[in-house]
């Protein structure tokens, strides 16, 4: 890891900066810096990732965009009351929360109602450049943690940079880009690396991939792999290697909190369920029956329960089943991965990587540029990439 005196400060700009995941990440980074907590869940802090040249937690400077107005300190206290943050931790890092909160700017409330999308992107670019200049940052990483959007088709007019610029200029309703893609576009134009932690369209447009490569900026995504799908990607290689044919795989997810509320909208939930089920079909190489259901249960608060039922065929056609239950708190599972991605993307940008980083597929349900979903293979790819990042230039 780099010396904070030599590596420079790294900005971490969070879209949805006052949400549960962002608040947990900001609070956790300060606690890790001060060695108040152990780095449980931080992949890049494990012994598998020595000397990768990643920025230290003390080098991270947080800011972001959000439409919410609840101060970070208040949000952290709410998470403390819900049992997600350790008792007393928000008080211990209150100065860090206040500092980060002062760097949060109003986000995109509704891009479809904005009359000049080109100016909207330009304003987002100015916010990012001002953040970098004001705080003397060597690099900035933008991470999208906002609410999941309804599926946004990748239209032909967004297939190259020229058509993308035309879509931004025109005011025709059918050419509106998703807010996540506007944020991604602004990040790449401002020379910031970018990560899609949601299943929203984001940078997954051919024109934005072209922009990233042209500007020499790396990006990664999409849809952070934190719970049920993490278990799936670990179990699937077991069935494949034992030549056990999976007949069906169905799951039910019970969610509380803001994520559950957002996904209770049937137009939004499709993006999430599609990325969840794609892991199974693409890992096995054949279609599997079954669906993933997501239900909003307010009483669960910040917790999540997932139950899966797997039917498979063994020797001589014997039918068998497996079931598992996953219970956890998504924000506590996601936050350390957000910190991992910020550190890895910053270092990758420093080392000259550009375009989609398939090597970071380990972190995502629907990894851009990568068809490999088996967790051990993804982890080995990530380890090799981290070793490369740590090599002397």
Automatic annotation (TrEMBL):
Record-linked Pfam families: Inos-1-P_synth (PF01658), NAD_binding_5 (PF07994)
A biological-process GO annotation: phospholipid biosynthetic process
Protein family according to the UniProt entry: Belongs to the myo-inositol 1-phosphate synthase family.
UniProt-listed InterPro entries: Myo-inos-1-P_Synthase, Myo-inos-1-P_Synthase_GAPDH, NAD(P)-bd_dom_sf
A molecular function GO annotation: inositol-3-phosphate synthase activity
Residues covered by the Myo-inositol-1-phosphate synthase GAPDH-like domain: 227-331
PANTHER family: MYO-INOSITOL-1 PHOSPHATE SYNTHASE (PTHR11510)
Superkingdom assignment: Bacteria
Designated name of the protein: Myo-inositol-1-phosphate synthase
């Amino acid at each position: 890891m780099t010396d904070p005196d030599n590596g420079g400060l790294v900005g971490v700009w969070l879209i949805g900066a006052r949400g549960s995941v962002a608040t947990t990440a900001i609070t956790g980074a300060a606690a890790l810096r001060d060695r108040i907590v152990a780095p449980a869940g931080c992949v890049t802090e494990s012994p598998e990732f020595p000397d990768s040249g990643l920025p230290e937690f003390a080098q991270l400077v947080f800011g972001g965009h959000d439409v919410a107005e609840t101060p970070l300190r208040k949000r952290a206290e709410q998470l403390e009351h819900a049992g997600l943050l350790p008792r007393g931790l928000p008080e211990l890092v209150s100065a860090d929360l206040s500092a980060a909160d002062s760097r949060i700017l109003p986000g995109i409330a509704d891009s479809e109602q904005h009359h000049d999308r080109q100016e909207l992107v330009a304003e987002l670019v100015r916010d990012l450049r001002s953040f970098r200049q004001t705080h003397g940052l060597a690099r900035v990483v933008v991470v999208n943690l906002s609410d999941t959007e309804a599926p946004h088709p990748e239209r032909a007019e967004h297939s190259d940079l020229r058509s993308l610029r035309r879509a931004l200029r025109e005011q025709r309703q059918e050419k509106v880009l998703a807010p996540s893609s506007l944020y991604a576009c602004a990040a790449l134009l401002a020379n910031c690396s970018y990560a899609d932690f949601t299943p929203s369209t984001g940078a997954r447009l051919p024109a934005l991939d072209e922009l990233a490569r042209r500007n020499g900026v790396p990006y990664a995504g999409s849809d952070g792999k934190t719970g049920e799908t993490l278990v799936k990607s670990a179990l699937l290689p077991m069935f494949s290697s034992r030549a056990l044919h999976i007949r069906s795989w169905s799951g039910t997810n019970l969610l509380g909190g803001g994520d559950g509320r957002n996904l209770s909208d049937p137009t939004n939930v499709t993006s999430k369920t599609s990325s969840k089920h794609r892991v199974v079909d693409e890992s096995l190489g054949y279609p599997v029956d079954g669906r993933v259901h997501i239900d909003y249960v307010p009483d669960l608060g910040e917790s999540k329960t997932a139950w899966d039922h797997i039917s498979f065929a063994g020797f001589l056609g014997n039918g068998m089943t497996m079931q598992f239950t996953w219970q956890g708190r998504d924000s506590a599972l996601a936050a350390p991965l957000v910190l991992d991605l910020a550190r890895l993307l910053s270092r990758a940008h420093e080392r000259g990587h550009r375009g989609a980083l398939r090597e970071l597929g380990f972190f995502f349900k629907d990894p851009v540029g990568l068809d490999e979903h088996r967790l051990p293979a993804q982890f080995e790819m990530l380890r090799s990439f981290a070793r490369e990042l740590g090599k002397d230039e």
